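queue> holo job accepted (zinc ion)
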Amino acid sequence: MSLDYKKLGLKAGVEIHQQLAIKHKLFCQCSAAFQDKEPVFEIKRKLRPVAGELGDIDVAAAFETLKDKTFRYKVYLNESCAVELDSEPPHPLNREALEIALQIALMLNCEVPEEIEVMRKTVLDGSNTSGFQRTALVGLNGWLQTSFGRVGITNVCLEEDACQIIKKDKKAVIYGLNRLGIPLVEIGTSPDIHTPEQAREVAEKIGMVLRSTGRAKRGIGTIRQDVNISIKGGARCEIKGVQKLNLLPRIVESEAQRQKEVIKKGKGVTRDVRRALPNGRTEFMRPLPGAARLYPETDIPPIQITAKRLREMRKTLPELLDKKLGKIMKRYSLNEEIAGQIVSLGKAELFEKAARLSDTKLAANVLTKYSRQFKIPDDRLLEFFRLLGKKAMPKEVLEKMLEGLSKGRPVKEVLKLEGKVLSRDDIIKIVQDIINKTPQALNAPRPEQALMGLVMREVRGRAPGALVMKLIMKELKK
Ligand SMILES: [Zn+2]
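queue> job finished
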């Protein structure tokens, strides 16, 4: 039974974490590729609670230290150095990462602070060797247009990713240092979401904006979603680690349901951090930490952002993928599925160039259907389209050509395969011969199908099926 979310007073906001596709980490020169598989050694650390400047210990801090855990960190040769080990101060902020984060902030209609200041955010689960995560606010007070109105963007932050858990038990957690420090953009929305489906739409749209930069990392674990949920009389709970977009609506629904049941039992809803489970339910992780656990990172000087720089950036912001999609569909009469594939593969520009040189359908076909099977550098592919021109190719010949190109054969040599391909006139002649030899085919319930079978038996591999069908229809109309 679905819930009446209006009556429940559901409020939700999402928080998206996206790794950037970038060479180096945020505060050192280590590779951010996250590909090292074999650690070279391991270090051991223990966490000790220290009272804050005001003499109190944060509720989240107290909760973590209760567990008295040992943390072990795996060190990787190319993907960790003394910075990740916290035995050397951070290097200056990665400027390329800052540029991408600023782009994202501007694309989300944010105000950008005049000064970007790196802050430390206390983290007590050992996922960061320093005991804090470095984060810089690069945008605030923005908005995102959705089908149900504007959703506020409260913050866009550039931050370092945390260590990845390799293994954990009651006494120890083993972390990999290679994910620590990978540049990450965090985007938080206002609690403007009022139904589970709206949560999905907002997360999807933000994902689209991120991919529009061309610098969002792809693949499992490169984007992570958290969602904050409350209902009337309940309390804000943060659900962490929603890996799949499709799960978001179910998570929102089950958390609203859970809070409703707690209230019904006459109990108070506590402010928790909960973990998203693959079945759409959630489980308790820890109490929600108090706010204001940020203090300045004194090792890194603030960076000034001038109005001039922002003006320049606004002029060259990447086009949004959904706009690009609409444009391609219209300009080249492609359906949404094919155009969507081209855009999401990041091949929109390549496709437009190819479509100008060659046949639109052929270009779309090659870039979507065959791009995984045959890896061909863009310039070689464009040279191929240019020399091929608008000619239609039978599937068999096309595949052989693409295979040749992927193996590095010269474009001109590959195009010699074209010699096998029948011309339009050759095909028409074959169609006419077959009609003359087997006139009974014309009496079949669907004569074009009957002829198609006969003609294809003769020309398979030497003429594209679609062209053959077109010419048969033409002959039948005579
Ligand atoms: Zn490093």
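queue> The pocket of zinc ion is lined by residues 25, 28, 30, 80-81, 83-84, 181 (CB under 6 Å).
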